[in-house]
Amino acid sequence: ETGVTQSPTHLIKTRGQQVTLRCSSQSGHNTVSWYQQALGQGPQFIFQYYREEENGRGNFPPRFSGLQFPNYSSELNVNALELDDSALYLCASSRGRDRTYEQYFGPGTRLTVT
Amino acid sequence: AQSVTQLGSHVSVSEGALVLLRCNYSSSVPPYLFWYVQYPNQGLQLLLKYTTGATLVKGINGFEAEFKKSETSFHLTKPSAHMSDAAEYFCAVSDLYNNNDMRFGAGTRLTVKP
After folding, report:
1. Nearest CA in chain B to A39
2. Which sign, positive or negative, has the C-alpha torsion B108, B60, A100, A85?
3. Beta strands B108-113 and B10-14: pairing type?
4. How near does any CA of chain A get to the CA of B114, in Å?
5. Beta-carbon separation of B99 and A108 below 8 A
6. pLDDT of B74-97, one tens digit each?
7. Cα(B51)–Cα(B30) distance, rounded to whole angstroms?
8. Are the Cβ atoms of A56 and B49 closer than 8 angstroms?
């Protein structure tokens, strides 16, 4: 088990609503990446935060936004939820923003949009 | 753009048999390559990675992979499968230049028969 925790574990929302997912990094890690994993697929990179600044973004619309706090914990916010946003959302923390640093994944938050 | 193709969405082997999971990548710059394992209802765990240097990489749980630039491949092997190896395996590619993007394959589900 890694030291990365995510909350909540499960969430059900209605189309059009907004949602906030939370991630607590492993101790000593200053970088957090978020991924969306649809059922039966591999994770897709949403964005990365390094020392409270966005440091890279995948092919996701602006309604996906994030924050990283001084303690390096992080939030993922999704506005105007769509049915296709239903997925497992994973966060991963690492010691640095370079991809050579190992990422430690949390167990994920499963979001269902109805 | 980077991409990863995992050949075979399902692989079944007998306990004690060789495990071979195939991964081919596409990248216009020197890649970083990764193999992750995902057990049910858990996040991803890094098995091994290639960044630079020796092309044969050894990882945890007896797995290894070889980076073959000429074949654009990074296949994962284990000489003798164990029941506990049953899981979903993901190959991923990243590099220094693509905005910290990380592309995952669709995954290969490994089943181990007694």
Report:
1. B106
2. positive
3. parallel
4. 25
5. no
6. 999 999 999 999 999 999 999 877
7. 9
8. no
